[in-house]
Specification:
The chain is mainly beta. The chain contains no helices and 6 strands.
Length: about 80
């Protein structure tokens, strides 16, 4: 897996988005560094390709309703 961090953007295996690698937060499953995903205001593990938190139940939330099943979704 190739991860690049350039000018506030991350590129993970060609998938580009706004976020950053967290140096002090780690996946509970594989212990990889977590990544913060700006568009969805939450963290995920790029190695496991899974979110660290469930979607919230707020019907007016601007982040959760549009969040894909997996962070590194493919087209």
């Amino acid at each position: 897996m190739e991860i690049l961090e350039i000018d506030g953007k991350l590129i993970i295996d060609g998938f580009e988005f706004y976020g950053q690698i967290e140096q002090n937060k780690f996946c509970s499953q594989c212990k990889s560094n977590l990544v913060y995903y700006d568009d969805f205001d939450t963290y995920f593990c790029p190695n496991c390709n899974s979110w660290t938190e469930s979607k919230c139940s707020d019907p007016h939330c601007k982040y959760c309703p549009n969040r894909p099943e997996q962070p590194l979704f493919t087209k």
